Amino acid sequence: MTTDKGENTSNTVTVYSPATVANMTCGFDVLGFALDGPFDKMVITKTERKGVEIINKDDYNLPTKPEDNIIGVALLSMLKQVDEEIGFKVESTKIIKPGSGIGSSAASAAGAVVGANNLLNNRFSQDELMEFALDGEEIASKSRHADNVAPCLYGGISLIRSVEPIDVVRIPAPILHVTIVHPQIEVKTSESRKLLGDTVPLKDAVTQWGNVGSLIAGLYTSNYDLIGRSLVDVVVEPFRKKLIPMFDEIKAASMIAGSLGGGISGSGPSVFMLSKDAVTAKKIESAIKEVYKNVDFEFNTHTTTISNQGVKLEY
Ligand code: HSE
Predict the structure, then answer these.
(1) pLDDT of 12-53, one tens digit each?
(2) How far is ligand 1, taken at its centre, from the CA of residue 7, in Å?
């Protein structure tokens, strides 16, 4: 039930939390966008007992102890700021496979806090929700990066200018279609981050910040050519691409099929490729399947778009 102001007057809300692509090739830890699917589903109920109860309704065997669960950690962080004797029961159905590289942990964390906030009549600000969600993200990836959580919360493309304090800029963009391939190998973000050193040669830094700046300019001005030219990563991709079977071949085939460019989605193993229209996105999908036709591991592909909507609620 909702009031005239759209407030939820019941004790339950259903949450659909989207997959996201972090880094957007050149923007390691500072750029990310929301996808128009897949979505994790959570049914959150406000209870009269302080604490969080997690019921997993999928086959991923994720922890149910709140302190060990991304949803649990994010909600416990929120409950620390709540004086009343209330808590939350969360029935979680994960569709976004953990370790797939399309923001599975962020979908859990961001979806949980948006849903719970709705049951508290939206008493927390977006920045506060981001802090709670980042507490959840941090236990999964061992780092406090917001390039999945922010677009999951806000939709569209987010630029993370700073995490401490939170300073997120929403970036406008023309229509962009996305082709995703997910080789079914698990890459843990924490492991994938260990491959990266602590320093970047100045020459590479110059190339990278040139590309980040021009990508933002291309997005603001709907300049597809500039967007494409800017999708270059000389800092992270050279280290991480070895985690992804036939990465260079996938990318080359996608470019021949008309992609603007793309790269590793977050910490991998998924790869995303951008295009201007749905027909090209499908051509890219076929080209990738052709590259992978004889491989001895499972993979799946799908096409979608960058979505301006983040977490969706139903009540
Ligand atoms: N920016 C993070 C990384 C995203 O690349 O490690 C993880 O999804």
Answers:
(1) 999 999 999 999 999 999 999 999 999 999 999 999 999 999
(2) 34
